[in-house]
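Chapter review: from sequence to fold.
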Amino acid sequence: MSTLEETVRRALAPVFAPGSEVGDSLVLDDVDVSSAGRRHVVRVVVDGAGDEPGDIDLDAVAVASTAVSQALDDADVLGQAPYTLEVTSPGVDRPLTTRRHWARARGRLVRAVLADSSSLLLRVVSVDDEGVHGTGEPQMVKGRPPRAKDVGAPHDLPWADLVRGEVQVEFRRADELDDLEDLDDDADDADDADDETEDEQ
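The token string follows.
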């Protein structure tokens, strides 16, 4: 982190202090300051306070944006240089590097990168002082199907063994597919019943 980014982070600390209007619902996750011509681009990433999974309240982000802008103007950390402010939530590509990151990813499919340079795919179940706990998920290895014993197997990953986590994009969860299959079965049963009714007529 550059000196300017550290200065911006210090200026914004009161905005996200516990007990403040913003700090009760959001935390400051990251700060990035870049240049676009003569203008600075200040990107402030905010995340939900606490470690409960869930989406971020967009109203809270709007309140944070106003407070951040005011704090930057009051502190004058950017001098007279014009700047563009972006206040945003973490994208799915944000690596999981802290306990809070992992905790908020509970229920998500994550590729865990380990200290020995290996990796594994798991669904995060819980997070505690010992580390991250999850269950193994199917993953193809050079086109080969996953080994049955790896699917659903428990994994307990100590913090010392974890380098980072990478959240995986899921288009269909297994339980959602099961629900769709159940709906299809119900629809097929209804069609069969209609056919029988028409035959009787």
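Two observations follow directly from the output. The longest helix spans residues 174-200. Residues 171-201 form one domain.
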